[in-house]
């Protein structure tokens, strides 16, 4: 009897293969522009963006946040990278019998705090208490709204080329577009791993969990954004490869321009981890019309993303994601097969 493996839900190639074989083959459909099989961060119906996600992070409270922060920000971010303004959410809790009430209150307080900051509301939900050894799992489903920032961005992109989409899409990248990463990578996964009991490694880093709408609206208002991805499971390697594959272009990235803290890089080096494949919870990988890339970068920095950087560009020279190393050589950046660190989001 064939059994499901943790890699089948870890955000890499194995998960994509699993979804196409067992889920997409049965349920592929679309209610608007975006089909289920396109595997964008959100889909759409009747002019709304729509997404859902479940969170099983361990530990449930970690440096910089909690599973509650992840649930609100993660779902809001899947909407925001489509250009949608997060508006309403559902919340479902599955809680282990004997779970700490104090910890639950902390998790719910984090959710309430971030909902207030993005001006969104929980309007329905469900709670189950179970005997299974799960700690706590949280599901949030979100609906996002079209808005003036999205419309202005699309209008500006269309001044430069044809753009047939009504949302910012993974597949919107074109040859010559600049690629921006909005801040230091790998902080969420590093914070989770360093905080796990018995790990024995001191690292003064917090999760980057954050609702990206708070800065993306400024970037969209500047205009010229052609593609966006939320680089969670599988990190920027997964996000870049997905954008390249869907857009039918290659992407060349300069290694020295990728924003990463020195201590996080050293942490990854010691453990043999690739920071390019580690989860982020408050960053965006985006494509931008080349002529507007510097203006978008300025808007991001003005909105608080001081480490945002232009890291490369799209090309028709090849179809892979290629990284130019600090010593001048080039190598392919493959998509991850699975998340190297389990249960970080």
TrEMBL record:
Organism superkingdom: Archaea
Gene3D superfamilies the record matches: PurM-like C-terminal domain (3.90.650.10), PurM-like, N-terminal domain (3.30.1330.10)
One Pfam entry name: AIRS_C
Domain PurM-like N-terminal, first and last residues per copy: 46-145
Domain PurM-like C-terminal intervals: 175-322
GO biological process, one term: protein maturation
Family of this protein: Belongs to the HypE family.
The protein's name: Hydrogenase expression/formation protein HypE
Source organism (scientific name): Archaeoglobus veneficus (strain DSM 11195 / SNP6)
């Amino acid at each position: 009897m064939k059994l499901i493996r943790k890699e089948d839900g870890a955000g890499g190639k194995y998960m994509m293969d699993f979804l196409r074989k067992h889920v997409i083959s049965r349920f592929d459909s679309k209610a608007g522009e975006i089909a289920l099989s396109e595997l964008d961060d959100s889909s759409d119906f009747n002019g709304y963006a729509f997404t859902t996600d479940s969170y099983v992070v361990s530990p449930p409270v970690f440096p910089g946040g909690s599973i509650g922060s992840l649930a609100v920000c993660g779902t809001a971010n899947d909407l925001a990278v489509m250009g949608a303004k997060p508006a309403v959410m559902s919340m479902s809790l599955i809680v282990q019998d004997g779970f700490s009430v104090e910890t639950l209150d902390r998790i719910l307080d984090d959710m309430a705090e971030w909902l207030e900051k993005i001006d969104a509301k929980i309007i329905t939900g469900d709670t189950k208490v179970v005997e299974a050894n799960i700690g706590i799992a949280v599901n949030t489903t979100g609906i996002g709204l079209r808005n003036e920032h999205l419309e202005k961005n699309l209008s500006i992109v269309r001044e430069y080329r044809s753009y047939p989409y009504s949302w910012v899409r993974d597949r919107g990248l074109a040859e010559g577009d600049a690629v921006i990463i909005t801040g230091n990578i790998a902080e969420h996964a590093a914070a989770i791993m360093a905080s796990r009991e018995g790990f024995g490694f001191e690292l003064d880093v917090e999760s980057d969990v954050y609702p990206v709408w708070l800065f993306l609206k400024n970037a969209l208002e500047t205009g010229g954004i052609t593609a966006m991805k939320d680089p969670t499971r599988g990190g920027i390697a997964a996000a870049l490869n997905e954008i390249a594959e869907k857009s039918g272009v290659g992407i060349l990235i300069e290694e020295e321009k990728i924003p990463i803290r020195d201590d996080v890089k050293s942490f990854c080096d010691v453990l043999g981890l690739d920071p390019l494949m580690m989860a982020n919870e408050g960053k965006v990988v985006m494509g931008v019309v080349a002529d507007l890339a510097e203006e978008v970068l300025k808007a991001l920095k003005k909105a608080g993303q001081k480490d945002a950087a232009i890291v490369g560009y799209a090309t028709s020279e090849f179809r892979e994601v290629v990284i130019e190393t600090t010593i001048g050589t080039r190598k392919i950046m493959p998509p991850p097969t699975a998340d190297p660190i389990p249960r970080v989001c």
